[in-house]
Design brief:
This protein is α+β, with helices and mostly antiparallel strands and 126 residues long. The protein is built from four helices and five strands; from the N terminus they run H-E-E-H-E-H-E-E-H. It is 29% helix and 25% strand. The model has no long low-confidence stretch (mean pLDDT 98). It binds tetrahydrodeoxyuridine. The site of tetrahydrodeoxyuridine (THU) has 13 residues, from strand 1 and helix 2.
């Protein structure tokens, strides 16, 4: 699975985005070490703080299926479905990634590949 292929799956996942309040759709495609791909989209709620990001949807889907080892995630998002600008993951999603992934975990965006270490160098851990 190439980064480009994973990014295309992330873009595809954004089609199911439920973003009636922000009109900012996000899709994520999470590549597991066993080769499986879990996709996710952002799902908003009228009680705004209950909204879940695309990345966490994908991660929670995977973990709930018993899959906890990951090598990369691709993320695409933008206002009104315009994905030209890179959509960086929020701090909450980076923290959730850090629960399951090491510093070399790859985060694939439209501007290229990053690592968890690069995006969140000092992470909380128990
Ligand atoms: N969003 C994500 O899906 N992922 C992120 O990393 C940051 C933000 C969503 C949440 C909300 O539905 C919309 O983008 C605007 O904040």
């Amino acid at each position: 699975m190439t980064n480009e292929e994973l990014l295309r799956l992330g873009e595809g996942a954004a089609k199911n985005s439920y973003c009636k309040y922000s009109h900012f759709s996000v899709g994520a495609a999470l590549l597991a070490k066993d080769g499986r791909v879990f996709t996710g989209c952002n799902i908003e709620n009228g009680s705004y703080s209950l909204t879940i990001c695309a990345e966490r949807t994908a991660i929670f889907k995977a973990v709930s299926e018993g899959c906890t080892e990951f090598s990369a995630i691709a993320i695409a998002g933008g206002a009104d479905g315009d994905f030209t600008q890179a959509c960086y993951p929020c701090g909450a999603c980076l923290q959730v990634m850090s629960e399951f992934c090491g510093g070399s975990f790859r985060v694939v965006l439209t501007d290229g590949e990053h690592t968890l270490d690069e995006l969140m160098p000092n992470r909380f851990s128990l």
